[in-house]
């Protein structure tokens, strides 16, 4: 075990044995880039109660993907600096990701350079997982994905951070192909500009482009499981979802890829596509989701073309315009546009498999994720312990 005490002294000689104490100077001077060498303070065998030499600042730690990444970092003996905004109780459960004293919380604002500098000053790794699915009065897509990402990369570079990991999005392009909305997805366009901004400020940054990510508390499976996404028992999809191909990735696989990139210095300056092992038509996937939830044709399930349903289109518009906080069921036009964009995977760009990640198949994970949405579960109409023949899995695209 190693203890680090921040004082005004220089870094003194490490003590051998089980307990090591190092005195570290907390103030940098103009002639110094870093106050101390973190790799010299490694202790232990690499588990949760060790220190592996990584001090990671994780922006977006309180989000869906952030919780998985923080858990992986803490289990490997990293020290975590977790910036947050809003209520500190929203992120307090991340305290148990690491050992005692290894997780530090600090408030910040994405537009406040000083608060960002404070949480990057002693880190050698910065991970940017900040993203916004819809625009608000306070933050546009560009404010979050471009200006915010640029500022984080700029401050990280100036603070002497060794590795910068940035989360973008699959299908991010300068001019995304339009499916429903005129001009295409503003989210995907801003993600592309964000990549360029990060690389301008931090050329050695590693960028991940994830497809739709599924897992506990996701916005993919639960989006289709929500009652607000359908019309009673009918599900509207653009062109019935038969012209859209998806390649979803499990959130744990994405977290594993980020951890693998941190350990491999050769990943610096590269872009990785985070996609699952198989490609499916959206129609095939959604039909399978409802079969898993035991909401099949006998229940009344029917998938139809959204283009001919003005009632549902009005619902999407009103949900977006009249929302107070989160859109009900995460339903808004930007999300509807993105769900019908086909995932394009470029053969020349490496994927998670190139980082040594063994990808999880949807057929092995999705039934567990959708158990809480099983029809009649909470009314006593079904017993999950009873023998049940699982539905046929979806047919992947050849």
Number of helices: 10
- By secondary-structure content and strand pairing, the structural class works out as alpha/beta
Number of E-type strands: 15
Main beta sheet: 7 strands, parallel
Mean pLDDT, to the nearest integer, reads 89
Instruction: Describe the oligomeric state of these chains in a short phrase.
Output: single chain
For the record, the CATH class of the largest domain is Alpha Beta
Quick summary:
This protein is an alpha/beta fold. It is built from 10 helices and 15 strands. Mean pLDDT is 89; it is low at 1-33.
Structure characterization notes:
The model is unreliable at 1-33 (pLDDT under 50). Strand 3 (55-59), helix 1 (64-75) and strand 4 (79-84) form a beta-alpha-beta unit. The chain starts with a strand and ends in a 29-residue tail after the last helix. Helix content is 28%, strand content 16%. Helix 2 (113-120) packs across helix 3 (141-158) and helix 3 (141-158) packs parallel to helix 4 (186-201). The longest helix is centred in the middle third of the chain and has 18 residues, at 141-158. The chain has 2 domains: 1-27, no CATH class; 44-379, NAD(P)-binding Rossmann-like Domain (Rossmann fold), CATH 3.40.50.720. It is of the alpha/beta class. The protein has helices at residues 64-75, 113-120, 141-158, 186-201, 221-225, 251-263, 282-292, 310-322, 333-339, 362-369; strands at 2-7, 20-25, 55-59, 79-84, 103-107, 125-128, 163-167, 206-210, 213-214, 234-237, 245-246, 249-250, 271-274, 280-281, 302-305.
């Amino acid at each position: 075990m190693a203890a680090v005490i921040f004082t005004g002294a220089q870094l003194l000689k490490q003590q051998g044995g089980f307990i090591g104490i190092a005195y570290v100077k907390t103030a940098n001077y103009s002639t110094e880039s870093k106050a101390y060498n973190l790799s010299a303070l490694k202790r232990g065998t690499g588990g949760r109660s060790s220190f592996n030499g990584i001090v990671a600042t994780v922006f977006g730690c309180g989000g869906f993907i952030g919780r998985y990444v923080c858990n992986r970092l803490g289990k490997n003996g990293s020290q975590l600096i977790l910036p947050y905004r809003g209520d500190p109780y929203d992120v307090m459960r991340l305290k148990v990701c690491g050992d005692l004293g290894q997780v530090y919380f600090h408030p910040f604002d994405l537009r406040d350079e000083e608060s960002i500098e404070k949480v990057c000053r002693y880190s050698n790794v910065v991970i940017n997982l900040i993203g916004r699915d819809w625009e608000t009065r306070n933050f546009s897509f560009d404010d979050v994905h471009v200006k915010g990402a640029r500022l984080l990369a700029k401050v990280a570079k100036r603070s002497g951070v060794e590795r910068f990991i940035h989360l973008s999005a699959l299908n991010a392009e300068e001019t995304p192909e339009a499916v429903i909305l005129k001009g295409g997805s503003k989210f995907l366009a801003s993600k592309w500009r964000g990549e360029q901004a990060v690389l301008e400020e931090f050329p050695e940054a590693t960028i991940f482009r994830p497809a739709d990510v599924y897992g506990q508390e996701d916005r993919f499976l639960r989006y289709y499981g929500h009652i607000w996404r359908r019309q009673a028992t009918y599900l509207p999809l653009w062109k019935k979802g038969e012209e859209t191909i998806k390649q979803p990735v499990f959130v744990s696989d994405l977290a594993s890829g980020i951890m693998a990139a941190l350990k491999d210095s050769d990943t610096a300056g590269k872009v990785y596509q985070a996609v699952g092992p198989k490609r499916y038509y959206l129609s095939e996937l959604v039909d399978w989701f409802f079969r898993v939830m035991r909401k099949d044709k006998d229940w009344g399930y029917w998938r139809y073309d959204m283009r001919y349903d003005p009632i549902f289109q009005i619902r999407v518009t009103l949900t977006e315009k009249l929302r107070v906080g989160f859109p009900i069921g995460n339903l808004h036009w930007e999300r509807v546009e993105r769900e019908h964009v086909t995932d394009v995977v470029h053969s020349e760009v490496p994927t998670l498999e190139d980082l040594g990640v063994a990808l999880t198949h949807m057929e092995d994970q999705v039934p567990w994720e959708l158990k809480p949405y099983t029809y009649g579960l909470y009314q006593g109409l079904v017993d999950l312990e009873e023998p049940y023949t699982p539905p046929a899995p979806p047919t992947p695209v050849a």
